Amino acid sequence: MALKKLEMTVGELAIRAGVAPSAVRYYEDRGLIFSRRTTGNQRRYHRAMLRRVAFIRASQAAGIPLATIGSVLEALGEHESPTKSMWHKASQRWVDDLDERIALLQRMRDLMDSCVGCGCLSMKACHLLNPEDAYAQQGLGSSRLLTDTCERKLEQAD
Length: 158
Hints:
Blueprint: H1 3-6, E1 7-8, H2 10-17, H3 21-29, E2 36-37, E3 43-46, H4 48-61, H5 66-73, H6 84-111, H7 123-129, H8 149-157
Antiparallel strand pairs: 1-3, 2-3
Helix pairs in contact: 2-3
């Protein structure tokens, strides 16, 4: 195969991968994909970057942060594509993280009607669930949603 067939421009890679050219450049800036520069300083991407971008997009769709994705891709050389085996190993590592996120989203769904995460807009409910502003001692933010404590208190209040 001729060298020209092995390489793509930013626009060609973006179209083939289904992303914006700015995303291609961003992925490169983050070290997730690689290019070489022509004598005219234009970027040329090896075809292996198509599979890398697909790997990145699939990982992001699962909610995996780019830094975590990058740590998996570090094992590859600049012209290597992720393999099915690599995806399997990475996904196994990410299962616990995904399970935690699913549990958090389920708690948020279940508390959506009675709680806004103790910030708080529901003073009547918080008087029962957060007496004397006990959650303020745990720091800022919606700490109630990060544990099942709120669920237990809701059950006790009913």
